[in-house]
Amino acid sequence: MKIGADAQPFTAISGSNPETIIVRGHDLVGELMGGISFTEHVWLLIAGALPTETQRRVLDGALVAIAEHGLVPSVVAARMILAAAPEALQGAVSAGLLGCGSVILGSAQAAGDFLHEVVSAAEGEGLVPAARRLVGERRARREAIPGFGHPLHKAGDPRALRLLALSEALGSAGPHAEAVRAIEALLPELTGRDLRMNISAAIPAVLLDAGFPRGALKGVPLLARTASLIGHLLEEQLRPIGFAMAHAASASITYDGPAPDGFVPAED
C-alpha cells in the first residue's frame, strides 16, 4: 500500500563510494576532518553551505548558551533513567531530550516562528504596530508569548543579553533582534507583567538574523543539551544522585487520595 505523496528519491546531504565520503559536496576525509570545527559542520549539514565566521560564532554562542543550566527537568529525567538502567546511556540521553517542548528547552522554535511572524507583518505595518497587534491577538486567545519570562532570571536572562550583544558586536543583528526587543518593551503594557526575554527568544533572534534555517531552530537546543546530558550521565556513573533525587521527590509529595481507615503514609 502506497503511503504519502510522490517524492523524488534523492538526498543532497551525503553520498559515498568505496574511496570517498561526500558531505554537502565536500570531501569528508580530505577536506572537512581537521579542517573545520564541529559548529561549522553543524551549519553545513543543516544550511547546506559552510558558514561565514560571523555565522559560526553566532551558532557557537547559541549552542554554548543553552547546553547547561543545572538540574533542570531534562537532566533530572536522564540521570534517573540511568540510575534505573545503567546500561542504557542512549536511553537516558533520549529521556532527557523527550521533554524538549513548549515550556522548557523547546520554545526556541515557537519563539522563532513568532518573531518571523512579527518581522513579516512589520514590512507593511511597521515593527511596533505589528508587534502590538500580534501580541494582543495572542493575549486575547490566552496564549503565552514564547521566549519571555523566566522563573529564576526575572530581571533579565544574562545568557540572552550576552547573545544579543555578541550578535550586535559581530554586525549580524537585524530585524529579528529588533523585534525581540520591541516585544519585550511592549509586554509590561500589554500583559501587566515585566516579562523579560529568555534564552529561547534570543537564540532564534540571532540565528534567524544570521541566516540559519527557521525550520531547524528546535534542533539547536536539542544538539546543545545532548552534550550536557552526556556530561551529567558520566557524573551519574561516578557520583550517582539519581536515586537521591527520586527519594527527594517522594519525600516532598504527600499522598491525599482515598485510603483505608487508619492508613498512615510512611514518613521516610
3D architecture notes:
- This protein has 268 residues and is mainly α.
- Helix content is 58%, strand content 3%.
- A three-stranded antiparallel β-sheet has the order 1-2-3.
- Helix 4 (73-84) crosses helix 11 (219-238).
- The longest helix is centred in the C-terminal third of the chain and has 20 residues, at 219-238.
- Residue share in helix: 55-70%
Q: Give the H and E element order.
A: EEEHHHHHHHHHHHH
First-residue to last-residue Cα separation: 57 Å
List the strand order in the largest sheet.
Answer: 1-2-3
As a percent range, the share of strand residues is: under 5%
Point out poorly predicted stretches: none
What does the main sheet amount to? Answer: 3 strands, antiparallel
This entry's quaternary arrangement is: single chain
The average pLDDT score comes to 94
Structural class assignment: mainly alpha
Instruction: Give the tally of β-strands.
Output: 3
**Number of DSSP helices?**
12
Radius of gyration: 22 Å
Form type:
globular
